[in-house]
Amino acid sequence: MKCVTNKRCYDTRELAEEALIEHRTRHYHNDNSGPINVYECRDCGSYHFTSQGEVSDLIKQNKSKISANREANYWERKLR
Ligand SMILES: [Zn+2]
Hints:
It contains 3 helices and 2 strands, in the order αββαα. The longest helix is centred in the C-terminal third of the chain and has 17 residues, at 63-79. Strands 1-2 form a two-stranded antiparallel sheet. It is mostly helical. Strand 1 (37-40) and strand 2 (47-50) form a beta hairpin. Bound molecules: zinc ion. The site of zinc ion has 8 residues, from loops.
């Protein structure tokens, strides 16, 4: 399924949130930049990332986990 927004579609909120955490683990963003939340799209009914509005509680809750994983990824790449 493709959306007019050209954003990547996720079928459920859970999938989108999981991907959002994953994304923030892989790519470095400041606290208030990059995708910070997910939303249900009015056009396609799927979920997309958004960089607007409030930072998702999910990100706040997983903040330490995200930075720990990101650090691990960084060293993994560096030492390879
Ligand atoms: Zn959409």
